[in-house]
Amino acid sequence: MVSIKRWLKHVLMPPWRWRLAFPNAVLKEIEQAIKQSEHQHSGELRFAVENALAPVWVWRGKSARYRATEVFANLRVWDTEDNSGVLIYVLLADREVHIVADRGIAKRVTQSEWDAIAQTMQTAFKQGDFRHGALEGIEQVTKHLVAHFPAKSDNPNELSDQPVIIN
User: Does the predicted model carry a pTM greater than 0.85?
Assistant: First the structure.
C-alpha cells in the first residue's frame, strides 16, 4: 500500500534541502571524523546522505532500508579485504538513518546494535542537530570497529572518507 503522505514528502522535498542539514563545514567535519576513525581500526566507514527517493520508487514501496542496501552496494562498501565496511545512510525525506555492515563485521555486531546507533542519530537529527548526530554516530561505529578490527601495521585506506551526497 502506497502512503500518499510519504510520497508527497519525497516529491515536495527541495533538492537543496540537504545543504541545510549538512553544510560544507559539517561535511568536512564528518570527513575528518572518518579519517581519524580509520586510523584506529582496519575497517572502512562511509557516510551517505540522500535527500529524497525518486517518486516512482516511493510509489512502488521502496523502503529507506532497502535503499540503504543498494547504496551500500553502489558505493562498494562490501569491497574491502576484511569485509569490514560500514555504511551510515541518511534519508532526509523519511528522517531515517540506517547502518549497513559488511559480513565480516556483521558476524560480530548485531543489527540491533547498529539500529541503536541509528536511533541515537535520528534523535539528534529530529532536534535539528545534524552535526552532533553524525559525529556521535561515527564515534559509536568506530568503537565497534576498534573492538573487532584493530588497526594493522599496514592499514590502507580502501574507500574514500568523503561523505557522499546522492542527488
Answer: yes
